[in-house]
Amino acid sequence: MRISTKFSDALHLLSFIEVFKSQKITSETIAASINTSPVVVRRLIAELRTAKIIGPYEGGCSPRLAESSKDVTLFDVYTAIEHKRRLFNVDHDTNPRCPVGAHIPDVLDTVYAEAEAAAFGQLRRTTLRDVIDRIEVAHRMEGEVS
Amino acid sequence: MRISTKFSDALHLLSFIEVFKSQKITSETIAASINTSPVVVRRLIAELRTAKIIGPYEGGCSPRLAESSKDVTLFDVYTAIEHKRRLFNVDHDTNPRCPVGAHIPDVLDTVYAEAEAAAFGQLRRTTLRDVIDRIEVAHRMEGEVS
DNA sequence: TTTCTCCGTAACTGACTCAGTTACACACAA
DNA sequence: TTGTGTGTAACTGAGTCAGTTACGGAGAAA
Predict the structure, then answer these.
(1) Number of Cα atoms under 13 Å in the Cβ half of residue A73
(2) For residue A73, is it within any domain?
(3) Is residue A24 included in any domain, yes or no?
(4) Least CB–CB distance from B104: residue in A15, A102, A119
(5) Which of B55, B83, B95, B130 lies 20 to 30 Å (CA to CA) from residue A56?
(6) Footprint on protein of nucleic strand D, Cβ below 7 A
(7) DSSP labels for A7-37?
(8) Domain containing B92: what range?
(9) Gap from B39 CA to C11 C1', in Å?
(10) Is A27 contained in some domain?
């Protein structure tokens, strides 16, 4: 199985509501940009809201970031969406009567944790603001070419 | 989707055939340690063989590493089993007429690649020998306790 | 040779996950 | 009151994964 596109869609959603924060935004508007259905968007918003990345619902108002985009890291978003899901999966159902089978789950837990820490450290170092900046740079460059 | 346990099982398999290389090994023996079926083991062996991590089939002989366990990195095994599979999934099906939707796939491709590079770098730094060493340390410590 | 063991591989199955849809009650604004 | 958008639950179809059955072939032993 694979890390779903929910994480990507969540980052898309957050970038969208920040870029267009001066305009009225509905789940329909967002869904049109992500190419998905409004319900999927609302589910994502609900998850990001319980993680306090999106502020509380205020009847009819467009969703807003709870804090500055500079203070939201990609790791925050990852955990909001994927919770404690690991990047690599350890097979814990092994034969405890075999020296290898008995100890490899713990060994892989440790080894994988090191690799995951490296990836998550990078996600922690990248903020939502960084993502939006890159989007805006790409958008401006497109304008110059055409 | 999540990275399946195939990667873990492959590392288990490789550790097993290296630790018990002085003994006769069948897919049945290995399957008993991994707690799976011999067919699953044979499929794994086939994949590791095409990646040249396990040496060619020599009728009836037990499977052997193609090179020293010190020269096999976890990244080698990862690519043998999961090929180019990415740790994070980019949703490329977005609306190109929206500034955010048009550029976020490329931005996430880049950002994810940085995080993946960090994780894969760690996998490259870890060898099969390291894994086996840790298994043997754990095994010896168990002996002392009991 | 015949028999036995093990291998490689293909085809099928059941469980699980994911994205998407339909549906419906609720809140707020016009 | 009507309309719009929200939150949430339930269902669906596609896709993936691990496991199983099955079968032909190679090599060793009788």
Answers:
(1) 12
(2) yes
(3) yes
(4) A15
(5) B95
(6) A 1-2, 25-28, 38-39, 42-43, 45-46, 49, 57, 60, 93; B 1, 4-6, 9, 35-37, 39-40, 59-60
(7) HHHHHHHHHHHHHTTTS---HHHHHHHHTS-
(8) 6-145
(9) 13
(10) yes
Is B94 part of the contact surface with chain A (CB cutoff 8 Å)? yes
> Which of A107, A126, A131 to probe by mutation at the B interface, max B CB count within 10 Å?
A107
In a domain, B1, yes or no: no
User: What does the block give as tokens for A11?
Assistant: 């980052």
Please count the structural domains in chain B: 1
- pLDDT the model gives residue B8: 96
* Confidence at B117, pLDDT banded by 50, 70, 90: very high
Cα(A107)–Cα(A102) distance, rounded to whole angstroms? 10
Asked if A4 has any chain B CB less than 8 Å from its own CB, the reply is: yes
Contact B138 A103 (CB under 8 A): yes
Residues of A in contact with B135 (CB under 8 A): 99-100, 103-104, 107
Check residue B88 and report its DSSP letter.
Answer: S
